[in-house]
């Protein structure tokens, strides 16, 4: 067997750990140390029997460390705490009662992944942004000491973290008679499967959001050991870095009610394909993997810029077979996915969209028709420039090469300017250096279709000439 060792990241952190690919044989694993068990007060017992170890896709061994060793903490953020937090504990429940936790509010738990932390960075930023738009209890779950060992040990540890989250929720039920319908678990990478473990232990949680659930040791495994639709009343997932042995860190398969695959879910615009760190260790996928929580963050403020279109594959989406939205509409990827009326119609619903390379990453898909007028044929290119109300502009090519009079050119654009904020659309054409000086090309008609909310919004600009600006009609 060829042993190939690589260094990689989960959650954007470089980790000096090893993944073996190809994996050891099933016989090698099951003949090792299966059948062991460890028990912790309050949380129960944990075994390494199948399906937790020794099954295809999960050929690993080991047991989770103790909660004391991992130093798990829960930090509460509310509008009363401002940028600070209050450390609360289910073991010492008086800390919850004395805190700013309110049983009248909804509660979001944010759970980080491998090599990360819940005491700073994106987890805290997520809580603070959520509090700007919603009056909630936001709890940052930190298990940094359990996430900073090897990846295999972290995989085993999430079972204890999930059990602790479930125990915390049960404590809220006991103290406040708190409703599970007020709880939303948001987890990135291993944190997504941690949320799934909590949901498996305490049925009836309103929502779990998985942000690029970790792929290694979870892809293709039984539902008990990974996030799946039965873990909450509603499970939505963002896939941003498919797991393909050594080339991706997230899951490929659907694992929720709504599964979103931005840019196909493998490589994200604005990220290098391979990242390099100062130690010269090659890491694959860190930026792509982290995009999932960045998309969720931006979706809080730009909900309509993350519309997902139902499709079987990304190739089909790219070949424009999935536009506009069907009669039931399209869901919004990220924070507002639960607004979709058909979200519980079935499990494993696939949705695709494209994003921009830079924050806020939002785009609005539009179908553009341009009918030309002028000389019969000429070489060059035609473009549309979108202007918003704040002076921002974005230019998109519609066609290039030999352009023909009376021909209709069609292009699907993922425009980075919200149609509601579009002030002007400019039609431009550029002729080649060999084109006759007196040759002119115009647009007899520019027609734009927006595929939103199950119906088609149309904007037309008849008689467009080069360089002339047209105001978009407002509805």
From TrEMBL:
Question: Could you name the active-site residues?
Answer: 189 (nucleophile), 212 (charge relay system), 289 (charge relay system)
Q: Which GO terms describe its molecular function?
A: lipoprotein lipase activity; metal ion binding
- According to its UniProt record, the EC number is 3.1.1.3
Keywords noted in UniProt: Calcium, Disulfide bond, Lipid degradation, Lipid metabolism, Metal-binding, Secreted
Which positions carry the signal peptide feature in this UniProt record? Answer: none
Q: Does Calcium show up as a keyword for this record?
A: yes
GO terms, biological process: lipid catabolic process
Q: Where in the cell is it found?
A: Secreted
Major location, coarse class? Answer: secreted
Q: What is this protein called?
A: Triacylglycerol lipase
